[in-house]
Amino acid sequence: MLWRNEQLRLRKALALATGLTAGTVLALTGTASPAAHAASGTLGAAAAGSGRYFGTAVAAGKLGDSTYSTILDREFNMITPENEMKWDTTEPSRGNFNFGPADQIVGHATAHGQRMRGHTLVWHSQLPGWVNSITDPNTLRSVMNNHITTEMSHFKGKIYAWDVVNEAFADGSSQHRSSVFQNVLGNGFIEEAFRTARAADPSAKLCYNDYNIENWTDAKTQGVYTMVRDFKSRGVPIDCVGFQSHFGVGGPPSSFRTTLANFAALGVDVQITELDIAQASPTAYANTVQACMNVARCTGITVWGIRDSDSWRSGDNPLLFDRNGNKKPAYDAVLSALGGSTGNSGGIVSGAVYSLGNVAVGRVLDVPAGQTGNGTPLQVWDANGGAANQQWRASQNGDGSYTLTNVGSGRVLDEPGGQTGNGTRMEIWDANGGANQHWRASRNGDGSYTLTNVASGRALEVPAGQSANGTPVQIWDSNGGANQHWNLR
Fold first, then answer.
1. 415 catalytically annotated
2. pTM of this prediction?
3. Catalytic one among 84, 91, 274, 461?
4. Among this protein's residues, is 91 annotated catalytic?
5. 104-113, 334-343, 403-412: range with lowest mean pLDDT
6. Of these residues, 91, 151, 167, 214, which one is catalytic?
7. Tens digit of pLDDT for each residue in 424-467?
8. DSSP per residue, 271-302
């Protein structure tokens, strides 16, 4: 986490990020797993439905605030200490360790069934003066390795993942930044830190964490990518990469999903670790979450604080809860993107009848006139005044998805059983409660919906570039295109 003297530097970066184009809204549903909370109407439970976590940064001094702790324990299933595990707190003088504040947070997490991310072991900032004054390589190597080993051993078995090294790359560069570790130990200090960490706690995931590495073509992103690729090729123990994601008002760059996917392809998990977005645009938040949801190895998302008043960027109002602890519109956007229920069905009323108009072609989802049997293939056609073959009744299921029943035929929108590949054509079939008849509805920034099949994880679409009456309707990987956007009216 960036703090104190780092704030001015990041604000400059955020000003540049404001001009970036927000990524397109995507939708994907993963395989369900046990939730840490009871209802899909919370962030943690909704994320758990796809095997992910949704966490927040926590300050020990705020745990006594009942509004703060109530939101924390209701919504989040992963905790990252804001400052309590950093070097200036944990080892203020050489060999004298203080884990009291961090123990308080870990104890709270344990009591409430929340997991912990450890943050951070080796970082150039919030570093005691005695460390910065070391000039002898052997001394610094011994001090660094002892700090890693002692802190990880203290929390062994209690930490899901550690940010072993934080922000080691220079702004706008593929090279390492100047720091006492870089200047005294050279490039090898990162590898040594990871090898030491693996020996200290073999079961914890070991992460590299940094900011401004979300845009794929940036030099800094490429520098970190090259390092991770090298580590994986040589067997250096690295399990995950954290993308801090402190965004300006525009949200993530358009290449964010590509960046996550490319890192994941190296064989590491990717995580959004410190998310906040200036002015908390619902669309920008949804785009960020959806980028993670569409990368299988994106295992979780952490926002950097709970209420706007808790944020280190409080003047930007960048979080999901306002200063009084009320949910902001961005909260509902995130919950919907995670596949959860917002409490108002995301604007879709269960039991209501809708026409489904494709945004790209201006035509509606249609069962060919006079054809009502099982297996009838679906198409798009000009709206014809509310005819029953173009009307669909939405019924919400227990998992928060919807079954869409054609009024004319009495049969439901169906992905043929066992057929989940790109280009599979959709049909109608008798309702049977199967996942192939369940559709997640994710609200897009234009007010339309992406309809994602629960069985395949692919989106309902009109094939790109095809717009004529009679064009078949199929499923395809989510890509945010207008041909995958549907207006329910």
1. no
2. 0.67
3. 274
4. no
5. 334-343
6. 167
7. 999 999 999 998 999 988 877 777 889 988 888 889 999 999 99
8. EEEEEEEGGG-HHHHHHHHHHHHTSTTEEEEE
